[in-house]
Amino acid sequence: MAQLSDDCFAFGGPLLSVEAAEALIAQRIPPLLGEEAVPLAEVAGRVLARDLRAPLPLPPFFNSAVDGYAFRQADLPPGEGALLPLAGRIAAGHAPAAALPPGHAVRIFTGAPMPPGADTVVMQEDAEADAAGVRVPPGLRPGANARPAGEDVAEGALALPAGRRLRAPEIGLAAALGLARLPVRPRIRVGVFSTGDELASPGTALGPAKAFDSNRFTLLALLSRLPVAASDLGILPDDPAATAAALRAAAGTHDLLLTSGGVSTGEEDHVRTAIEAGGRLVFWRLAVKPGRPVAMGVLPKAGGAFASGGTPVVGLPGNPVAAVVTFLHLARPLVLRLAGAAPEPLLRIRAEAGFAYRKKAGRREYVRVRLRDGIATKFEREGAGLLTSLTESDAFAELPEPVLAVAPGDAVTLLPFAALF
Ligand code: AMP
Ligand code: MG
After folding, report:
1. Where are the beta strands (DSSP E) in 92-246?
2. Which residue's CA lies nearest to atom 17 of ligand 1?
3. Which residues have beta carbons under 5 A from ligand 2 (an ion)?
4. How far is Cα 95 from Cα 182, in angstroms, rounded to an integer?
5. Which of 330, 324, 329 is nearest to 421 (CA)?
6. Which of 52, 183, 196, 234 has the fewest other C-beta atoms within 10 Å?
7. Ligand 1 centre distance from Cα of residue 187 (Å)
8. What are the beta bridge partners of residue 197?
9. 11-20, 174-183, 403-412: least confident range
10. How many angstroms separate the CA atoms of 297 and 233, rounded?
């Protein structure tokens, strides 16, 4: 983490672009080392620590893709069908008793091994069978309805690269390869604070001038999709000394700290100053809306020195939508980098704008939209504090820095919530 402390975009100059912040993370955050062997049933969401080569081919043997009759193409007169007498039956899970005798067919079921000599299968729906044998129609290409060994993965091939996040498809592939445990990176320890004298935890009484803390739970839920061991570190008061002390203490026991709120320029905003006081500010303020007041820094891991590297800290904005937008651009890539995951750009899709919108040049804006039949319709209100703008939308429309206006019919890029939340 020491690399980060060399940079300082904090003062003066233009706001840091989202792209520059992402590049900074991609280039300067070293992955945390370590590896553990975890049973397949528990690896969901973790990061593969080593390349996995296939110890066997997939499928492991030449087999039928359908219920039907296996035969040898060369036994049919060219361009014609034939009546082939049946020479046995092979069910899934059972080895063929013998090779296919010339001029014959065998009854075969999906997943059953092809008998030596057979190369093609006719589906049972396309064939007529009776006591005399099976009538195979003309026109089946050689190899039809049969799956060669290794057509999915060849033996020895790279099945999954190091850095891949293990989702349902990857876990299924590893299981098919017979692997009971996988070498994965350790979970990143992430501590989550809220800040603000106005905040009360859900489940406690709400006094006058108080509001319930939502960000902590949004952030913990976002983190639950990542290879993270998250700790809920509660609510910090708007107090500089308490904020600095809490961040310093948590930095010693976490790999990443996230706070929300308290990062603007008000006299009651103490997160940025606490980062500066206890460690180093890397940047402050992004050219993004919502989400401009966001700070990133590094705090010493222990003993007040950076000798052993440091713990990155991201001070997210307090407004709930701004906290989500900046989480996605800073916290998520930070976690993935620290966890040794390969870069995973956010999924972007194109749609047609069904709305008009004006914006300032020089900053990226995220507008909440609903998506119906390829048309993106804007959520009617724009406040960064509107939680329902997220619950009642389907995507962020991402309006790039140079764009000044969107008109109905324009193409827009969307970040679908289904891929984010
Ligand atoms: P701040 O940046 O601390 O001034 O916060 C900006 C706005 O976000 C204020 O209205 C805060 O009350 C609100 N806010 C800050 N933190 C949270 C939180 N954890 N949950 C919900 N709202 C918050
Ligand atoms: Mg505050």
Report:
1. 105-108, 120-123, 128-130, 133-136, 146-147, 158-160, 181-184, 188-195, 199-200, 211-212, 228-236
2. 318
3. 196, 261-262
4. 30
5. 324
6. 234
7. 28
8. none
9. 11-20
10. 18
Choose among 31, 117, 108, 102: nearest CA to 68: 108
| Tokens coding 191 | 């501590």
Which contiguous run of DSSP H or E holds residue 186? Answer: none
Between the CA of 219 and the centroid of ligand 1 the distance, in Å, is 13
Phi, psi of 363 (to 5 degrees): -140, 150
Q: How far is the CA of 196 from the centre of ligand 1 (A)?
A: 7
Q: What's the gap in Å between 196 CA and the centre of ligand 2?
A: 4
N-terminal to C-terminal alpha carbon distance within the chain: 28
Please state, as a whole number, how many other Cβ atoms lie within 10 Å of the Cβ of residue 265. Answer: 9
Residue 297 has pLDDT above 90, yes or no: yes
Helices (H), 17-152: 18-28
pLDDT at 3 over 80: no
Per the listing, tokens 């069978």 go with 129
Pocket of ligand 1 (CB under 6 A): 194, 196, 198-199, 211, 213-216, 260-264, 317-320, 385
Ligand that lies nearest to the alpha carbon of residue 216, given by its number in the listed order: 1
Residue 237 C-alpha to ligand 1 middle, in angstroms?
Answer: 12
d(CA 150, CA 301): 48
Alpha-carbon distance of 346 to 31, in angstroms, equals: 20
Mean pLDDT across the chain? 95
For 136-168, the pLDDT digits (tens) are 999 999 999 999 999 999 999 999 999 999 999
Joined together, the tokens standing for residue 415 give: 């970040």
Q: Considering only CA atoms, which residue is closest to atom 23 of ligand 1?
A: 318
Q: Which atom of ligand 1 is nearest to the CA of 322?
A: 8
